[in-house]
Amino acid sequence: MSAETKKCHIGDAALCMAEPGCHWDVNKRGCYEGPLPGQDACAAHETESVCDTDVSLGCKWDVEKKTCASQAQ
Q: Is the pTM of this model over 0.85?
């Protein structure tokens, strides 16, 4: 294990996020090397009614996938 990999081997989310070059992955519940992968901000909306009323982010509900995503520009 390299020194770079060891520096992100942290079990606490706050300490992980404070360490430059590391990010906390909520889904995997762990600290990982590198920047946090980009995610569509609209994905935080879990219901169609909230998704479709979010005009600030330009969100649109995907009926087939049952998810909220940014509208393609």
A: no
